[in-house]
Backbone:
């Protein structure tokens, strides 16, 4: 993660793997605070995927569910409603988002969801105690993904399910590529290494299959799902929202400040081109990944 929070994380106080120190600094810092303050906006952003993801979890009454990288907890709350007499544990690195998740669950009288601040890669989960582990775009940031998924596997009972929503390659996600290209202008577009922890770390199904197999999962399946993401009701609000996103902040931070007016003008043009009667929408593509532990 290149976005740094303004306050130092006391890494030792909740056991973060050294490979995830940068991620913890970002998510448990200013970037997580930005997400926590925009909970509804982020849920709207990804709303196109909500029903399909939830259906894929096949959660039934009485099940115990683990939500990895739960953020502000919308999927935790959705899972809790489906689990009924069961329960859901949401884990995340971000204190701010967990605070929001706890508040939103309480406001909605959801009594069977709990939340813990933890690095899912190394946290000591109660062994073999969950029926299903789910994550909506919360599992791409592990410094050591095989170790992380192997650790998540320890929490699942035999036959337990893993259901993930992860972004496909950047080229299928113009909400990133078009915006980054607009900002960068004629200049180079920075690309993280293919296996670096980032939003696109599980974009290649072959790599994801290798990781999950090494972590002990099988019956691994990928569904190609494509929806528009929603950046806001109008161009002005979408522009303000986009300026807080990690990839946008990274590109702007690398540009000479004298180039900012051009970059921001190009960003406004891109947003204008995607403004519809139904708000600002860009195409996107994700994988719905299902696997089992046996
Ligand atoms: C893109 S957000 C998704 C949040 C939420 N799942 C949602 O759909 O709104 C990614 C989340 O993963 C969390 N995360 C990243 N690395 C993590 C780790 N090693 N352990 C636990 N959570 C992690 C971040 O703190 C962040 O809340």
Residues:
């Amino acid at each position: 993660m290149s976005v740094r929070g303004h306050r130092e994380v006391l890494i030792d106080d909740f056991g973060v793997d050294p490979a995830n120190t940068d991620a913890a600094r970002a998510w448990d810092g200013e970037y997580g605070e930005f997400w926590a303050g925009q909970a509804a906006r982020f849920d709207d952003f990804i709303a196109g995927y909500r029903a399909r993801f939830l259906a894929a979890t096949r959660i039934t009454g009485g099940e115990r569910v683990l939500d990895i990288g739960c953020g502000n907890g919308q999927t935790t709350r959705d899972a809790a409603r489906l689990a009924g007499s069961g329960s859901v544990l949401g884990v995340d690195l971000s204190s701010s988002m967990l605070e929001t998740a706890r508040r939103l669950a309480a406001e909605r009288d959801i009594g069977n969801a709990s939340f813990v601040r933890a690095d899912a890669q190394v946290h000591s989960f109660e062994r073999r105690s969950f029926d299903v582990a789910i994550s909506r775009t919360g599992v791409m940031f592990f410094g050591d993904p095989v170790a992380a998924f192997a650790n998540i596997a320890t929490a699942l009972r035999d036959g337990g399910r893993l259901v993930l929503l992860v972004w496909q390659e950047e080229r299928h996600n113009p909400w990133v590529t078009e915006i980054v290209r607009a900002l960068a202008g004629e200049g180079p577009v920075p690309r993280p290494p293919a296996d670096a922890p980032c939003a696109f770390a599980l974009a290649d199904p072959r790599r994801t299959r290798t990781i999950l197999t090494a972590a002990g999962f099988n019956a691994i399946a990928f569904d190609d799902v494509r929806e528009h993401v929603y950046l806001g009701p109008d161009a002005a609000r979408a522009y303000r929202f986009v300026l807080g996103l990690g990839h946008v902040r990274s590109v702007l931070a690398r540009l000479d400040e004298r180039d900012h007016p051009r970059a921001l003008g190009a960003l406004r043009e891109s947003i204008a081109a995607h403004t519809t009667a139904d708000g600002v929408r860009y195409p996107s593509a994700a994988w719905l990944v299902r696997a089992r532990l046996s």
User: Anything to note?
Assistant: The CA atoms of residues 5 and 29 lie 4 Å apart. Residues 11-170+193-231+284-293 form a domain with the Rossmann fold fold (CATH 3.40.50.150). The pocket of S-adenosylmethionine is lined by residues 20, 23, 27, 32, 42, 69-72, 74-75, 91-94, 97, 119-121, 136-138, 141-142 (CB under 6 Å).
